[in-house]
Amino acid sequence: MQNLDSFGRAIDYLRISVTDRCNERCLYCMPEGYHGWERQPDHLTAEEIMRVVRVAAGLGFRKFRLTGGEPLVRRDVSEIVRAMTATPGVTSVGLSTNGTRLAALAAGLYASGLRSVNVSLDALDPGLYRRITGGSLAAVLAGIHVAQDAGFERVKLNCVLMRGVNENELWPLTLFAAEHDLTLRFIELMPLTRTDVLTPDNFLPIGEAMRLLSERDELVHQPDCQLGHGPAKYYRLAKTGALVGFIGALTNLHFCESCNKMRLTADGKIRSCLGNHGEIDLRTPLRQTSNDDSLREVFLAALRQKPLDHQFRGQYQPLRPMTAIGG
Known about the structure:
Blueprint: E1 13-17, H1 46-58, E2 63-67, H2 77-85, E3 92-97, H3 102-111, E4 116-120, H4 126-133, H5 137-150, E5 154-160, H6 170-179, E6 183-187, H7 206-214, E7 219-221, E8 233-237, E9 243-247, E10 261-264, E11 269-271, E12 279-281, H8 283-288, H9 293-305, H10 322-325
Helix pairs in contact: 1-2, 2-3, 3-5
């Protein structure tokens, strides 16, 4: 079965936020002073998440990713992974994390069937890392190395580009990725906490990031490189050998043409587009009836309302921050 939206795009990828809680406070994800945590009963249980996964897989969703908040602060995340990887129709389960708890949990996650993990890493300078995230760089680096040692097939690094903050970290991060045989992706800021992230003082486009790297090494386009299920365009650096990807939701005017995903928030809302406020409540029918037909109808309704393009290039005003939506 193939899910086609109103514009003919095949939608087979569901990103599931298992919590809106996080043990870091990244500048671009959680607004200062944000305390809008959903109450614990508002979060979907592991059993509810698995029911949604089974329904989604029955509708043709094949690729899944667990996000947050920080998914590793949820104690039953390994059990969720184990159940997901055993679900008929599910071909891929990944997880996105800040990495701070990965060292302690990597072996268990691998044993549960997880094979792909994305780790946020916006700086290699410990002081700058703490300024950006409020967390410990040492814990993240330990998590990355333990994940590699555990045998994960793919460990990718994600760096959010911030002008005036981490331009000088791009080359050190590239060298780090090359040294440890890691894929590194640079991601443009999106207005998911506040709109002023898009001002010239804050916004660093991927084109400029590419120029900064090309001053040190030649970027060789890898048009056939497809790692994971997202929109990154990959390049190999000729001298260092680093493989770097670029995700430009704002400057790439064709960014949404091949979108294949929808999102499930931690409080049970289906969101068909990250850059659009439209959400449909899945939690209420999930808890009111054991009949999966109503859940399928929510997915199909979300599919029908999926827009052609995101709204970030307009005067988009975030109603819920990134940590409340899911990565």
